[in-house]
Hints:
Elements: E1 7-11, H1 21-28, E2 33-39, H2 51-69, E3 75-79, H3 82-93, E4 97-101, H4 106-121, E5 125-129, H5 151-159, H6 186-190, H7 206-219, H8 224-227, H9 240-244, H10 250-257, H11 264-282, H12 304-312, H13 318-330, H14 335-348, H15 353-363, H16 369-380, H17 395-402, H18 407-412, H19 444-456
Parallel strand pairs: 1-2, 1-4, 2-3, 4-5
Helix pairs in contact: 3-4, 5-11, 11-16, 13-14, 14-16, 15-16
Amino acid sequence: MTKLSPVILWFRRDLRLHDNPALAAAVRSGAPVVAAFIVSPEADDPWSPGERAQSWLRVSLDHLAASLGERGLRLILRIGRPELCLAQLAAETGAATVLWNTQYDPTDRAEETRVAEALAKVGVASRTHESDVLHRPGSILTGAGRPHSVFTPFYRAFLRMPPLAPSLSAPRTMTPMRRWPASVSLNTAFGKQAQRPILSDWHPGEEGAIKRAKRFKAHALDSYESARDLPAVEGISRLSPHLHFGEVSPRQLWQSLTTVPGSGAFLRQLVWREFARHILFHKPELTEQPMRGAFAKFPWQPDPVQTSAWQEGRTGYPLVDAGMRELRETGFMHNRVRMVVASFLVKHLLQPWQTGTRWFWDQLYDADLANNTLGWQWVAGCGPDAAPYFRIFNPVLQGEKFDPEGAYVLRWVPELKGVPVRWLHQPWLASVKPRRYPKPIVEHTAARERALAAYATIRD
């Protein structure tokens, strides 16, 4: 019997065994499988994971290693540039092929090119698979053959695409190596910067993702459309970190929910995620530059003092401050509140949208480059399918509408305890004002007029 050369399975943001096409291909080969994860130096990637994301990643890898161990494999960790580490690992193991699931962020695409070229130079084949998207970028175009820049037509075109292939089961067994190559420990790979504790209501890893999806399906999916804007209730999926790290695939979610009555609003959010990835694939410069060229001359007014007040939840607007404090403490923020705090930064304070993008990137567990970039450009009015420039969220009205009893605000801004509900979202009007809570750093009407004037300078 001919001895098969090992294959290397390069894990990236696909930290799961279910519905993992590259893993399935490795198992089908019948060859010994070397599962590897490469921790790259931060200098290699301007969008390397922030501290929060690093903490999540470390725990998720620990769970992945345990799952692989149950099937006879080890997760090999290396530190360095992926193209060098994988070529070295192939030389050590005699592997003839490296398999991975493609990622579409700009730096990931550049990294994949470097890896494929380096492997080809030493006679090692590369095989890539689709995992992070429902349909490959470039496959959903306008009638004129161009990428979509507006969500609704993209959504309609998405729904006309051929049915998805069935998701893949996790393999029960895999062929191990007789002798394993060297591996560094998680502590060595990540160091102290990834030791930040993760709050008990988060459970990184594939098992945690599956449990979260089942909980959402059983308890919140049927009310998602009406409850998703209410930050005080369990009305959202909280699956975004699991999706970002590939602990559950978008195809798994789509196929498990698409036949469930009332799932349409949530599935539409999955398509928005897809839309963001397709846009960034075609326009990788959007991580730093506005899609609408006129915004290159927008009269932003950078102010580190106001930015710090926003970051720390000291703006004097309770809903804004609650959201920013939730973010700092938990690494997460409710999506409705994300829109409000983002609008406040770029429109009330006239701070560049890139400032918000970077802060969210550093603070969020689900810091996803495509979603983060497109979300901030949408709020700022400079991106695809952008919100109208004159849409400036009133943080008082938003609070009164979506947190009418103040349960969310009081959880994160306890200084307001005792303020009557009537004044909870504008406590400066209460007869007895809270002593330890700041006054608004800007007045809403004046800030709105200033923002409209600024937008008028580039409107034409």
